[in-house]
Amino acid sequence: MKNLIFYIHLNTVKILLLGNEAIAYGALAGEVAVATAYPGTPSTEILETLEEFRDRFVHWATNEKTALEIAYGAAVAGARALVAMKHVGLNVAADPLHSAAYTGVEGGLVVVSADDPWMHSSQNEQDTRWYGLQAYVPVLEPSDPAEAYRYAKTAFELSEKLKHPIILRSVTRVSHVRAPVEVEPPSPPKWGRFSKDISRFNLVPAYARERRKALVEKWGTIGEVSAELMRVEPGGHVTIVTSGVAYNYVKEAVRLLNIDATIIKLGMPVPIPPKIRELVKGTVVVVEEGDPIVETQLRALRLETKGKIDGYFPKYGELNTRKVAEGIAKALDIPYNPPQPPKSPIEAPPRPPVLCPGCPHMGTFYILRLATAGLNPVWSGDIGCYSLGINTGQQDLITHMGSSVGLGMGVAVASKQFVVATVGDSTFYHAVLPQLIDLATKKVPLLVVVMDNAYTAMTGGQPSPSRLIPPEKIAETFGIPAFVIDPADIKTSIEVTKRAVEIVKSGRPVLVVSKRPCVLVATRKARKAGVAIPKYKVEPEKCIGCGICYNLLKCSAIQARPDRKAYIDPALCVGCGMCAEVCPVDAIKGDGARVKWLEVWQQA
Amino acid sequence: MATSLVIVGVGGQGALTLARWIGEAALAAGYDVRIAEIHGMSQRGGSVEVHVRFGKEVYAPIVEEGGADYVVALEAVEALRAYKYLKPSGVLVANKRVIQPPGKWVDPQFVLEAITKSGIKAYVLPCFDIAMELGSPIYENAVMLGAVSKLLNLPMPESLDERNREAFRRGARLVV
């Protein structure tokens, strides 16, 4: 990407950009000065792209609420600010979002929320556009990367013109699609200066009531702005109303079905332009990704619709050309025969997501299993790579960011069962800190395990504050005893963790911090620095086929041969040596470079 | 109309890069392009799938089942998994390599025979072996790129470095 930055300083170029990169470049063209985010797929690359621009304030915040607050404050002070998150992150930031609509902003405030229909990497499906209706914040919805670029820029202009926050809603198939985008050079950042306005910026009841009235009035005028972003592609008597990524499937579907339809594409699906009522007669086919939000608003205008509400299009998952063509055909009562795919000659065995070879969490889960043997714990989990502890049966409850300690406390007080709460370092700062205070004040017996790999690893390795503000120091400040272990040192760690388990059994909470950086970051750095990474090998004559390495440690670089003996794929092994530590018959051997490599790795 | 490809492999093999190269070449050849990448939970070691569509006018970023002109597989087990995307007239281009899925040892010979005898037009290519001859498995995707570019009549992407160019040329020679 660095080459691109150089390039576009000279010219306007057309280049294959990821939707998220396009949003970032659109924001740069829109004079963004402050950009914040908490990483989350599919939104992460927006801030990753902006991070390269040192003339702006760009910050990975602890969580989405903090991120939105910083951007909101900047926009209140007249600057142009962007905050990016995934759909579930907007729940965390929902409180300041609602206030932002009441006070409005002086500069531009653009809240990018990336939805993930069919949950490629999320715990639920959610349609961000509901928040637009709920919080009285207009929503722009681009259909592809080129439009994402333009809308990001437009969003700043609109936000500043309306003095109101704007949501830019993306979905996986916009954020993670590459397409040609024409990129202009970035504009200089627009900073600001805070002007006091007591009755506007202090949402105490007396002032807030006045702001509420003003907000409802303003919402009426925003419908006119929405009309400006509506595009009508004239055609026959059939009218299809669409928005966002769904537009693309509509374009392909009308061609497949060979129908002449008038397509109305809404750039701002919340609020819909009331003027749309004058454009259509009879039934409208509505195609949108997510929930029937445009359709619900059209029905409120007393228009007849065929969309998701009556099941013409599926109410869950992503759309595609086939689903859209089928739905339109059904709505118009015309035939459509989709292609029949060929069947695979044999069924491919599943390849579920697994922890990376050498992942420190693999060691931590093994240590925890042995240290809690016989206790039959309830494993209270959280969102992150360590969710994959589900593969060894060590996750029973994973619901949202911060669920580990909060729900774990609930289970522990309700059932008196032994509960292990596992949380990553980034999630620890994101959502667990306040819960830790509750844990400390109430002294609920809970084994909290912070899997501290120093990065927000699942989203590609954004920095976490763990080295500056170590979890064990926080716990000790709160009066919770803390132990630090190294998951690569399995034998010692089991002994230390057993001591922690005894404290929990005596009725008190305890923290175990398992410290070793993300193996992906470490191997990347080692390769650059030319540090040798050892390879481990199985000596087949010694291996007894017990399966501890591939079934219990569950290293994904190790497979069971047909005779049950272990095989280490040399292309996958990253030399952590955990397999050699757990092997009961000493059948796994490294090449001696481990000690040096583990030291380098710990510094990664 | 657009040409639709589904590119599959195992996390870490470079399927995303392969897709980007093909997209870059298609853009240079004057086509409109859409590449839909899947980033998700711990894709390293898991199945990876990327959809590429190019043509005069492209809208939909994803390919539906039965809609792919080509399935390009960097790994043979994943080729079987992606069969459902092929049009009945579609072409499968698969690397000979088998990366063992967790917990179940599959016989590579069995997988490759299933592909060649399936009745679909298939190229089964030694991309991994050639990459190893060139010094590293990281050239696997560039060898595949060479073969696919030949089939699609696309140019070599400009961004390839010299080693990858050599891999590309070796790959192009695999298909006639």
Description:
The complex is a heterodimer of chains A (604) and B (176). In chain A, 40% of the residues lie in helices and 17% in strands. With 604 residues, chain A is α/β, with parallel strands linked by helices. In chain A, strands 3-2-4-5-7-6 form a six-stranded parallel sheet. A five-stranded mixed sheet of chain A has the order 9-11-10-12-13, sandwiched between helices. A five-stranded parallel sheet of chain A has the order 14-15-16-20-19, with helices on both faces. In chain A, a hairpin with a 5-residue loop joins β22 (558-560) and β23 (566-568). Chain B is an alpha/beta fold and 176 residues long. The radius of gyration of chain B is 15 Å and the shape is globular. In chain B, α1 packs parallel to α5 and α5 packs across α6. Chain B has six helices and six strands. In chain B, strands 2-3-1-4-5-6 form a six-stranded mixed sheet, sandwiched between helices. Chain A: [4Fe-4S] cluster 1 binds at residues 543, 546, 549, 583. Chain A: Residues 534-563, 564-593 form the 4Fe-4S ferredoxin-type domain.
Describe the secondary-structure layout.
The complex is a heterodimer of chains A (604) and B (176).
Chain A: H1 2-10, E1 13-18, H2 19-29, E2 34-37, H3 45-50, E3 57-60, H4 64-76, E4 81-86, H5 87-92, H6 94-103, E5 109-115, H7 129-135, E6 139-140, H8 145-162, E7 166-171, H9 172-175, E8 177-183, H10 198-201, H11 205-228, E9 230-233, E10 238-243, H12 246-257, E11 261-266, H13 276-279, E12 284-287, H14 293-300, E13 305-306, H15 321-332, H16 360-371, E14 378-380, H17 403-415, E15 419-424, H18 425-442, E16 447-452, E17 455-456, E18 462-463, H19 471-477, E19 482-485, H20 490-505, E20 510-515, H21 519-529, E21 537-538, H22 548-552, E22 558-560, E23 566-568, H23 578-582, E24 588-589, H24 594-602
Parallel strand pairs in A: 2-3, 2-4, 4-5, 5-7, 6-7, 10-11, 10-12, 12-13, 14-15, 15-16, 16-20, 19-20
Antiparallel strand pairs in A: 1-8, 9-11, 17-18, 21-24, 22-23
Helix pairs in contact in A: 2-8, 4-6, 12-15, 16-20, 17-18, 21-24
Chain B: E1 3-10, H1 15-28, E2 32-37, E3 47-55, E4 68-73, H2 76-81, E5 86-95, H3 108-116, E6 121-125, H4 127-133, H5 140-152, H6 162-172
Parallel strand pairs in B: 1-4, 4-5, 5-6
Antiparallel strand pairs in B: 1-3, 2-3
